[in-house]
């Protein structure tokens, strides 16, 4: 039974040395427990924050302890009536091939609506992040212009499609021409490769009527450029700042306060768990739109437990389109 632990806290970008593999006997479930076989592991940008000691909205991982995150697992032995053998669950579980659990915090995956891995993507944490961040904070209206950064990622591609469902004009930024082409295929009105374009000029050209909503996954220079285009009463959902997750010094740049003041814009940070009581409602609506063909989703699936660190490191190099996952078994 292999486990991946935090070997040391990274300074700057994590590397293979950040992770340590250990092997032990597979655990045996005691009464009231199940044995879970890991099927899919989710690698997520927020996990970089947990590798640092700094206080945040989730506790840091401890050096030497297993790394944990979103996992889809199958019950292979059960001493728990509510989770018979064969049940599929999603939960926050260690990066480990087999794990015992008392079932607390695990959510059973319903048969049918979508591939089981989607409960780590469209119908899981990233999809809900897009759903609540866009619909509750940005509240786009028909005809408005919505910009989403990190648009070809798990959260971003859902944000753009939801904004289209609401009748908005949607502009996405992403890091390759392939991703830009994919976003156009998904129905984005405009997509910009921020690595090759002059981002300020390209955004200004793509948003001739200004920007009403900005869903920020990235921060940095893309965000600086969007702030120059804000319309009166613009709404900004501050979801992530991946451009600075590996920074060793506080990022500096233009100070946006004046632009927010002048436009009476609303900037709101949020964590998807702020909406925990409403998650079932979000999953229901996302499932409905997916079933009706109004939402599409993409995954980049790497195979093999030993590839989990590489898949995680790939997030910071833009290797994934849609949800980055590792298929373990
Ligand atoms: P993604 O699937 O979007 O994967 C990360 C992507 O970020 C990469 O594919 C890459 O795409 C892009 N990226 C990496 N480094 C940079 C950089 N320096 N500058 C610009 N883009 C970069 O991840 P998620 O969809 O899971 O997450 C998106 C964002 O949302 C993250 O910031 C994450 O932390 C945040 N988040 C916040 C939540 C909340 O509750 N507030 C919950 C979930 C996610 P590219 O090729 O375009 O560069």
Core attributes:
single chain; 329 residues; alpha/beta; Quinone Oxidoreductase, Chain A, domain 1; Rossmann fold; 2 domains; 6-stranded parallel sheet; 26% helix; globular; binds NADPH dihydro-nicotinamide-adenine-dinucleotide phosphate; oxidoreductase; ER; Enoyl reductase (ER) domain-containing protein; GroES-like_sf
Structural description of this entry:
This protein is α/β, with parallel strands linked by helices and 329 residues long. Helices cover 26% and strands 26% of the residues. It is built from nine helices and 15 strands. The chain has helices at residues 46-50, 125-138, 154-165, 177-186, 199-206, 220-227, 257-263, 279-291, 308-315, and strands at 2-6, 19-23, 34-42, 68-78, 88-94, 98-101, 107-108, 145-148, 169-174, 190-193, 211-216, 230-238, 266-269, 299-303, 323-327. The strands form three sheets. Strands 3, 4, 5, 6, 7, 14 and 15 form a seven-stranded mixed β-sheet that branches. Helix 2 (125-138) crosses helix 3 (154-165), helix 2 crosses helix 8 (279-291) and helix 5 (199-206) crosses helix 6. The radius of gyration is 20 Å and the shape is globular.
Given the helix and strand composition, which structural class is it?
A: alpha/beta
- Number of helical elements: 9
- What spatial form do the alpha-carbon principal axes imply? globular
The value of Rg in angstroms is 20 Å
Largest sheet: 7 strands, mixed
CATH architecture label of the largest domain: Alpha-Beta Complex
Q: Overall mean pLDDT score?
A: 97
CATH top level assignment of the largest domain: Alpha Beta
Ranges where pLDDT stays below 50 over 5 or more residues in a row are none
Q: What is the string of helix and strand elements?
A: EEEHEEEEHEHEHEHEHEHEHEHE
Cα separation of the termini: 13 Å
Total count of strands: 15
Ligand inventory: NADPH dihydro-nicotinamide-adenine-dinucleotide phosphate
The CATH fourth-level homologous superfamily of the largest domain? Medium-chain alcohol dehydrogenases, catalytic domain
Give the % helix: 25-40%
β-sheet strand percentage: 25-35%
Under CATH, the topology of the largest domain can be stated as: Quinone Oxidoreductase, Chain A, domain 1
Q: Give the tally of structural domains.
A: 2
């Amino acid at each position: 039974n292999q486990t991946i632990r935090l070997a040391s806290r990274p300074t700057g970008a994590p590397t293979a040395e950040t992770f340590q593999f250990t092997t032990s006997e597979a655990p045996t479930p005691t009464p009231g427990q199940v044995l879970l076989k890991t099927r899919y592991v989710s690698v997520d940008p927020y996990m970089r924050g947990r590798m640092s000691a700094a206080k945040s909205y989730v506790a840091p991982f401890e050096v030497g302890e297993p790394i944990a995150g979103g996992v889809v697992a199958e019950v292979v032995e059960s001493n728990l009536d509510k989770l018979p053998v064969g049940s599929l669950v999603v939960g926050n579980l260690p990066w480990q091939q087999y794990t015992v659990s008392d079932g607390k915090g695990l959510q059973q995956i319903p048969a049918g609506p979508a591939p089981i891995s989607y409960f780590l993507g469209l119908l899981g944490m990233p999809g809900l992040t897009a759903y609540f961040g866009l619909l509750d904070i940005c509240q786009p209206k028909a005809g408005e212009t919505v910009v989403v950064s990190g648009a070809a990622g798990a959260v971003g591609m859902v944000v753009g499609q939801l904004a289209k469902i609401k009748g908005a004009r949607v502009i996405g930024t992403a890091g390759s021409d392939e991703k830009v082409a994919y976003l156009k295929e998904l129905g984005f009105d405009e997509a910009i490769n921020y690595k090759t374009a002059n981002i300020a000029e390209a955004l200004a050209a793509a948003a001739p009527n200004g920007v009403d909503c900005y869903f920020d996954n990235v921060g940095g220079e893309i965000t600086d450029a969007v702030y120059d285009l804000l319309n009166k009463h613009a709404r900004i959902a501050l979801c992530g700042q991946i451009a600075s997750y590996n920074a060793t010094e506080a990022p500096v740049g233009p100070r946006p306060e004046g632009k927010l003041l002048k436009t009476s814009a609303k900037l709101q940070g949020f964590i998807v768990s702020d909406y925990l009581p409403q998650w079932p409602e979000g999953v229901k609506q996302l499932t409905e739109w997916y079933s009706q063909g109004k939402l599409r989703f993409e995954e980049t699936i790497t195979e093999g437990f030993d590839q989990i660190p590489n898949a995680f490191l790939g997030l910071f190099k833009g290797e994934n389109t849609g949800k980055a996952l590792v298929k373990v078994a």
